[in-house]
Amino acid sequence: VVLINAIKDVAKALSDLIGATKGAASKPADDPSMYQLKGAAKVMVTNVTSLLKTVKAVEDEATRGTRALEATIEYIKQELTVFQSNEVPEKTSSPEESIRMTKGITMATAKAVAAGNSCRQEDVIATANLSRKAVADMLTACK
Prior knowledge:
The chain is an all-alpha fold. Helices cover about 85% and strands about 0% of the residues.
């Protein structure tokens, strides 16, 4: 699952890079779209590097949980960038939906406590993946 998420991150970054490239085509170097292109290229490099680290971590059983947490942290950072952008969301959420999203955060927190107590790699990975989805859903609903 961690590997698939890393691949999804690379695919999303590639899509963003292609969009930024299209937007920056034939623009002067000081155009804001060029800065977006630069940012998209940095994210792409970061995600490819992350994918390579993930592949390596999958090989090393002892670091799988750590790598899953690192990947989740990186994904949340990227989602925060989207959240803070001026881009208009595709859909709107009602206040009730936003409140309902807190349930995912609560579940992820409970799983994190349980994973900390069990110290099992599988529990840490499951918690990282659940947290990733819960935070992304919450940010999307809030935006």
